[in-house]
Amino acid sequence: MKKYVDVIVPLPIAGQYTYSVPDELTDKIKAGCRIVVPFGSKKYYTAIVTKVHQTAPEAYETKDIMEVLDESPVLLRRQYDFWQWLADYYLCTLGDVYKAALPSGMKLESETLVVLNPEFEALQPLSEKEQRILDLLGNDSEQCITQLEKSSGIKNLLPVIKALLEKEAILVKEELKRSYKPRVETRVRLSAAMQTEEAVHRQFDALARAPKQLALLMKYIELSGWTGEKKELKEVSRKALLDSAGATSAVLNGLIGKGVFEIYSFEIGRLSAEQVSVSPLNPLSSAQQQAYSEILTHFHQKNVCLLHGVTASGKTEIYIHLIQQAIQAGKQVLYLLPEIALTTQITERLKRVFGNRLGIYHSKFPDAERVEIWRKQLTDDDYDVILGVRSSVFLPFRRLGLVIVDEEHENTYKQQDPAPRYHARNAAIVLASMFGAKTLLGTATPCIETYYNAVHGKYGWVQLTERHQNVLLPHIEVVDIKELARKKRMTAQFSPLLLQKIREALEQKEQVILFQNRRGFAPMIECRTCGWIPKCKNCDVSLTYHKGLNQLTCHYCGYTYEVPKSCPACGGVELINRGFGTEKIEDDIKLIFPDARVARMDLDTTRTRTAYERIIADFEDGKTDILIGTQMVSKGLDFDRVSVVGILNADSMMNYPDFRSYERAFQLMAQVAGRAGRKNKQGLVVLQTKSPDLPLIAQVVSNDYGGLFQSQIEERNLFKYPPFYRLIYVYLKHRKEEVLDQAADLMAGYLRNGLGSRVLGPDRPPVSRIQTLFIKKIVVKIEQQASMSKVREYLQQVQRAIVEDERFRSLLVYYDVDPM
Ligand code: ADP
Ligand code: ZN
Ligand code: ZN
Known about the structure:
The protein has 820 residues and is an alpha/beta fold. The chain is built from 25 helices and 34 strands.
């Protein structure tokens, strides 16, 4: 009987494709495995089988699949159910989900760029085909798979590429940007003939005229701790030796040729690189113990529980106890953190307790490492705990019992671009329910919707109102900067009180954090004469000025421009640095406190994970006195020498035109304030604002989340926002503005036919042109009780009607469900 397979291809097309399976592959094919399929005229892709069956499609002639890549499924049944839920709920395709879910190394296609791994040394002989590919890459180290196929003459190259990737002889191009950590380390040792002290000394003399080789030998002696006596030497990696001696590999090879050194490979195992010793759990305080028991009680009746605990109340300690409990019951735990909060601080803390049972999944890790975690999750030796960012909801699990979403209010849990525009917290709740697992949402400043669910009994609700060991919450002092500016008493952006408190803190060797919200305050340049501001030629936005690089950058399309010497509008030469970026604050603070050690943490100074961790480590170690930063400084970091926190401008957060702006402003200020305070001294927060009389300011000062919730929930009800209504934004994009306007009006009209006044717009979003495409947005507001599946169906029906219209062929339509 002829076999057919339904597959997901990594493309944004609706529905699945059916292929036929050639006879020689019928035994190998299984649902959940990856296969290679032709698609379009020449291209081929890695697709995933969702179903094996015997029904040929009626509408089209099937093509044969080319190859089966896996012996056993890499996509488990429940993962596939989860993918379907995501595509359905977030109005995107399974192809979109597939692309987001799998690490690059698992979804090769004809256009994938591969490169030689410079660290590779073959441990076993390579096949003839593999060798041919390496030779080709040796000539030109970066090629796409189609190109390699052409020049090697090997048909159907993917299995060969896959084998080379598994041996780590080659890498997918993307991961070169990340810091790649090899699994096998090449190490250096003295050869057998060099084992005696005498032999080594003879070698010293012999190398007198080869100073570079001599220096390298000396370096080795130093690094290995060799003393001539019989004892264990330290292992020395080839890279460490060459790096610290500043020598080239030619020098080393010379010594190997002379029989001084030999090299050997050592398997270091990337995932469990160091053997960690596991320490016992901290006992919980009585308040924590109480919260812990309440959580477990709620879990008897409810699937989701909110742990609302002030900053530093010990939420993380409670998570650790819950994880331990789940593991003892034979279950797996997924612990989600926002990208930026996933630091060494938290990983070290968990590693200390869970050792090698903990796996860490981070988007800034090398792709090969993510592939390895994925594969390990499919074995019997899978991780008990995964600590990871948003995308770790896609990992395979088989025994999931508990999901923890820390800092659940964080809006970075929502993926903005590209599709699937999913919210990892909400997706995780659904994932957990598919396993019959429980979800704990933890935060000091809940999302309004979450709190609403807790108050109304949909979620369990547990509170921790005291910090651990009665450390006091900080005292917050409000400063009216409008008044001070009028009296000309501000120094740059600093009030006299803030400067005085910074000075006192520095005198007492305490630390300071200065917080500047970035939004709406990106640094720009402006012509002093005519007010001209440079804008991106592809997008409708002002360019951001990077003083360090002396460049203008578009934060939407990434395009960079030179800073003009004169104003193109009026020819004036006085281009001033406007705006309020963190860079400017850094400059000013250095002028005022020339002896202080100042660091800055924002998008520009934290491009790599190491840069980010460096800044935090220096601050922890007291190597920095003042840390200036954007929202990043507010994220779950735990410092114990910070006595003063300055919030430079509260208004920039509150005035943002969005229904969540007050909620966010409260969350940001409460979180950043939470960094202040130490074991035996109450911390101080200086909150600078132009509107000290706003109720929100009073709520922040008294840490009155309940008050904030009350006022927000009334507004949300009145203006039809979540949690009372669900929002769906419909975006339309087109190169031509007239075509876009026509399409948007037509689509909004169709939508109104079915949904009436639930449809608003079309409008131009604040940024109405990105990468040369014009954008329009239609807002749909649906009552919480309404049937979402009907609404989704209707939206898709309207979309089909629009895109099938001749005039709108190249129109792009996409959705943002539950936008943040
Ligand atoms: P949160 O997650 O609520 O911000 P943490 O769990 O990070 O709070 O606790 C704050 C600090 O107090 C941490 O340094 C943590 O190690 C310490 N701490 C909290 N609870 C305990 C405990 N039961 N035993 C020992 N240290 C604790
Ligand atoms: Zn000008
Ligand atoms: Zn741009």
